[in-house]
Specification:
By secondary structure, this protein is mainly α. It is built from five helices and no strands.
Length: 79
């Protein structure tokens, strides 16, 4: 069951939240709900990570990355 919750915050923060919600294709309520949900004990460790880092978790499960391959990538990209 959904219930209403009123939050008070700076107007500029509200504008930032609305812009980010549009960018993610979600509502501000959904973003706030997801945040509160992430505070549960099972996801507390991931909640401490920035969102961009969290989105990358598990990307290399099947692959392998080494410092050497990263340096090669940088040389190929910038030289």
């Amino acid at each position: 069951m959904n219930a209403k919750l009123t939050l008070r915050m700076e107007e500029t923060l509200i504008l930032v939240a609305k812009k980010e919600a549009r960018h993610q294709g979600k509502s501000v309520s959904r973003i706030v709900g997801d945040f509160f949900n992430s505070l549960s004990a099972g996801t507390r460790q991931q909640a401490a990570l920035p969102p961009i880092t969290t989105s990358l978790l598990g990307v290399l499960k099947q692959g392998h990355a080494s410092e050497t391959s990263y340096h090669k990538h940088l040389r190929d990209k910038y030289l």
